[in-house]
From TrEMBL:
It comes from the Eukaryota. The lineage of its organism: Eukaryota, Metazoa, Chordata, Craniata, Vertebrata. Residues 74-141 form the COMM domain. Transmembrane segments: none annotated. This is COMD2 protein. Pfam families: COMM_domain (PF07258).
Length: 150
């Protein structure tokens, strides 16, 4: 009916979908949206229609995107135990420590538990890496990225 190729229609729909989802994700203002579509070279009438389409549907698009986001497990509680093997049949004097951690997680309205075991040196290395990652989150670059992700 449009006398246009199938690929052209498909690319147009995909482009429009991408424009609306990314704009809704970032919750850009009317002026920012107009600036974004102005560079595409459409007529003023089409730009106004696209703006109205965005304003009418951005909350619904955000709610749909929120439902599509993966549901990650969240922390509930932690139990830990330190085991030390002092001797065995072959070695009378040895010290072999092990840390056992039971991590309780909330997932899909239920609880799951993960049991982990490691030696103290690996645990200390893991703690250092996590503290370093938390320190990275305080940098301006990471804050800017997190702010744009919301």
């Amino acid at each position: 009916k449009l006398n246009i190729g199938v690929d052209t229609v498909q690319h147009g729909v995909e482009g429009l979908t991408y424009l609306l989802t990314e704009s809704s994700k970032l919750m850009i203002s009317e002026i920012e949206f107009q600036d974004s579509i102005h560079v595409l070279g459409f007529s003023d009438e089409l730009n106004k229609l696209l703006l109205q389409l965005y304003l009418d549907n951005r909350k619904e698009i955000r709610s749909i995107l929120g439902e599509l986001a993966p549901k990650l497990p969240s922390y509930h509680s932690l139990e830990w135990r330190l085991d030390v093997q002092l001797a065995s049949r072959s070695l009378r004097q040895q010290i072999k420590p092990a840390v056992t951690i039971k991590l309780h997680l909330n997932q899909n309205e239920g609880q799951t538990a993960q049991v982990l075991q490691t030696d103290p040196s690996t645990l200390l290395h893991l703690i250092q890496q996590l503290e370093q990652a938390l320190g990275e989150m305080k940098t301006n670059h990471c804050r800017r990225i997190v702010r744009n992700m919301k």
